[in-house]
Amino acid sequence: MTNVIEQIAAIVPAAGIGSRMGAEIPKQYLMLNGQPILGHTLDILLTHPRIERVIVALSPDDTYFEALAQSKHPKLERVIGGNERADSVLAGLSLVTGGWALVHDAARPCLTSGDIDKLIMAAEQAPLVNDVPQGAILAMPVRDTMKRGNADGQIMATVCREALWHALTPQLFPTRQLRDNLTNALAAGATITDEASAMEWAGMTPSLVAGRGDNIKVTHPDDLRLAALFLNNK
């Protein structure tokens, strides 16, 4: 038995400041090929035919969003986010009553429509566990040799990379399950670094969907230049 996915709402946590970029403005508003990073991210989500709504979680002090060309799009909604990613995702989920939630990083501007299609298809085709959909995430198999270091920056061990994946976004889950598991995991003091980690905490087994290698997250200044190259070659 598989699941037919309908009513997909995309949630974009965009309340952070991206301190590692060392910029004077939040990194999602840095210019990239003619528009802010967040503009590219919203473009792909707003134009995808399977996504009905796009909800952006913003800082209460955000003074940049209104200037985006996408800010008045009829599919776009906004909500005040929180201090942590999970808080912003929960704020977005508060506007959604059913269906599925597709959560995507604000600073991943190189996402393609094809990868969204692959993610939705994988979540639809994944077997149910006790009649419960398990969801799916985009990810990339680890290609490089992995080392575990100590506090002094010395190698302690080589880690087998077999079956290791880099988690990407979007991540796609049933709305009610994601909201409940995020809420309960945070209340229990669990470490939640992405949506899948909340589902794993609850005993679920999301599917891993191999995504494109150019779906990078802009975190450091070099990433901005790399993202510009990727967008120029799409």
From TrEMBL:
Catalytic activity: 2-C-methyl-D-erythritol 4-phosphate + CTP + H(+) = 4-CDP-2-C-methyl-D-erythritol + diphosphate
Residues with site note (Positions MEP for the nucleophilic attack): 161, 217
Residue numbers marked as site, Transition state stabilizer: 20, 27
GO molecular function: nucleotidyltransferase activity
Record's keyword terms, sorted: Isoprene biosynthesis, Nucleotidyltransferase, Transferase
Enzyme Commission designation: 2.7.7.60
Pathway per the UniProt entry: Isoprenoid biosynthesis; isopentenyl diphosphate biosynthesis via DXP pathway; isopentenyl diphosphate from 1-deoxy-D-xylulose 5-phosphate: step 2/6
Coiled coil, from the record: none
EC top class named in words: transferase
Superkingdom of origin organism: Bacteria
Function, as annotated: Catalyzes the formation of 4-diphosphocytidyl-2-C-methyl-D-erythritol from CTP and 2-C-methyl-D-erythritol 4-phosphate (MEP).
Alphabetical list of HAMAP family matching this protein: IspD (MF_00108)
Matching PANTHER family: 2-C-METHYL-D-ERYTHRITOL 4-PHOSPHATE CYTIDYLYLTRANSFERASE, CHLOROPLASTIC (PTHR32125:SF4)
Family: Belongs to the IspD/TarI cytidylyltransferase family. IspD subfamily.
Protein name: 2-C-methyl-D-erythritol 4-phosphate cytidylyltransferase
Organism: Shewanella colwelliana (Alteromonas colwelliana)
Organism lineage string: Bacteria, Pseudomonadati, Pseudomonadota, Gammaproteobacteria, Alteromonadales
